[in-house]
């Protein structure tokens, strides 16, 4: 609280440094970074260099891109943000999973919502086999067991082809 | 994973029970179901309108239609709800009311027996509830959620007051019944 009022008085923007797990440092304005609840709490505790051991440089770069764009959010650029979000979720599933786990760790609620909804929409019509591949899950059912689970909700497996693609 | 799966429609979740034993247990878990329900309640796109249609004809029958309440996909998305698979096929049914996506209905299972059913159109599952002591034909029934006991309760009110000097009210607690 004290820091934000003093910075507005002097006109100086308070800067923070984020350090990725690869050791790269990113300097950002505090007003951008406080979208992230985890960092906000650290700032309140007086930190100005914030080490993020669970986030690598590639993921952190994307997250910073998101936070910068969303810090510009106003009533007039809603459409622009919407298009930005659309582009932002276009990466591979593995990249999206990295981002989800970082967004979860950093507590960026808006980003978490965006990513989870996009992944859910992308897997919604996928086949069971495709979902196993995407989430890297090995099938631990015997054929009989799988058949039994399938039979419990047969209708959910019927009605058209499911998407086998992995993107 | 909870965050991703709780955003999927019920049909996809039931299909993904086949992914692995862990997914099956995860999707069937009451905590996940609660999360999913909270999410669905807040999501405009998953709000549905259930329409019961009575066809008057040779086999005057009830049919259910489901349409989305979302303004973007108003009528186009309308689909017939099929309550025959995976549950008892009622010949005729009369819905009493709904609560949290559950529908309470009186259904004629075979030509003579009127049953009180609790139906979940999303999972297409239904359970046969015990009869109220008063004849079902003469009752109106209601379904509600009681937050103090975290339980759904069904109220049956006998309308045939001529035979009974006092209005008969019966309450069935689902927690107790299941």
From TrEMBL, chain A:
Single Gene Ontology BP annotation: jasmonic acid mediated signaling pathway
Annotated ranges, domain SKP1 component POZ: 14-71
Keywords for this protein: Ubl conjugation pathway
Signal peptide: none
SUPFAM superfamilies assigned to the protein according to its UniProt record, in alphabetical order: POZ domain, Skp1 dimerisation domain-like
Gene3D superfamilies reported for this sequence: Potassium Channel Kv1.1, Chain A
Biased composition (Basic and acidic residues): 147-160
A Pfam family it matches: Skp1
Disordered: region residues: 143-167
Pathway membership: Protein modification; protein ubiquitination
Residue ranges of every copy of the SKP1 component dimerisation domain listed in the record: 110-156
Entry-linked InterPro entries: SKP1, SKP1-like, SKP1-like_dim_sf, SKP1/BTB/POZ_sf, Skp1_comp_dimer, Skp1_comp_POZ
Stored PANTHER family: SKP1
Complex formation: Part of a SCF (SKP1-cullin-F-box) protein ligase complex.
Similarity comment text for this entry: Belongs to the SKP1 family.
Reported function: Involved in ubiquitination and subsequent proteasomal degradation of target proteins. Together with CUL1, RBX1 and a F-box protein, it forms a SCF E3 ubiquitin ligase complex. The functional specificity of this complex depends on the type of F-box protein. In the SCF complex, it serves as an adapter that links the F-box protein to CUL1.
Protein name: SKP1-like protein
Species in which this protein is naturally found: Anisodus tanguticus
Automatic annotation (TrEMBL), chain B:
Boundaries of every F-box domain copy: 2-33
Organism: Anisodus tanguticus
Alphabetized SUPFAM superfamilies for the sequence: F-box domain (SSF81383)
Pfam hit, one: FBA_3
UniProt cross-references to InterPro entries, sorted A to Z: F-box-assoc_dom_typ3, F-box-like_dom_sf, F-box_dom, SCF_F-box_component
Residues in F-box associated beta-propeller type domain copies: 63-158
Domain of life: Eukaryota
Protein name per the record: F-box domain-containing protein
């Amino acid at each position: 609280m004290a820091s934000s009022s003093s910075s507005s008085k002097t006109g100086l923007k308070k800067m923070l440094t984020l350090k990725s797990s690869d050791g790269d440092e990113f300097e950002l304005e505090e007003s951008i970074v406080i979208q992230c609840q985890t960092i906000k709490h650290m700032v309140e505790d007086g930190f100005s260099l914030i080490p993020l051991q669970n986030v690598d440089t590639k993921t952190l770069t994307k997250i910073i891109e998101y936070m910068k764009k969303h810090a510009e959010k106003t009533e007039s650029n809603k459409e622009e943000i919407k298009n930005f979000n659309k582009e932002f979720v276009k990466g591979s599933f593995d990249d999206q999973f990295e981002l989800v786990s970082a967004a979860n760790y950093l507590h960026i609620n808006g980003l978490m919502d965006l990513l989870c909804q996009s992944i859910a929409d992308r897997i919604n019509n996928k086949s069971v086999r495709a979902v196993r591949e995407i989430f890297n899950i090995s099938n631990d059912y015997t054929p009989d067991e799988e058949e039994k689970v399938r039979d419990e909700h047969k209708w959910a497996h019927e009605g058209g082809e499911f998407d086998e693609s992995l993107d | 994973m909870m965050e991703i799966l709780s955003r999927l429609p019920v049909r996809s979740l039931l299909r993904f029970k086949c992914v692995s034993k862990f997914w099956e247990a995860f999707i069937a878990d009451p905590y996940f179901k609660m999360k999913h329900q909270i999410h669905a309640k807040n999501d405009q796109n998953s709000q549905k309108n259930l329409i019961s249609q009575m066809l008057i004809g040779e086999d005057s029958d009830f049919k259910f239609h489901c349409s989305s309440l979302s303004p973007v996909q108003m009528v186009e998305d309308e689909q017939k709800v099929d309550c025959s698979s995976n549950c008892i096929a009622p010949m005729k049914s009369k819905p009493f009311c709904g609560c949290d996506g559950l529908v309470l209905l009186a259904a004629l299972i075979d030509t003579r027996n009127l049953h009180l059913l609790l139906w979940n159109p999303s999972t297409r599952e239904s359970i046969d509830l015990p009869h109220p002591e008063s004849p079902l034909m003469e009752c109106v029934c209601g379904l509600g959620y009681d937050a103090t006991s975290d339980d759904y309760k069904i109220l049956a009110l006998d309308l045939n007051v001529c035979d009974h000097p006092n209005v008969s009210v019966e309450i069935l607690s689902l927690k107790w019944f299941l």
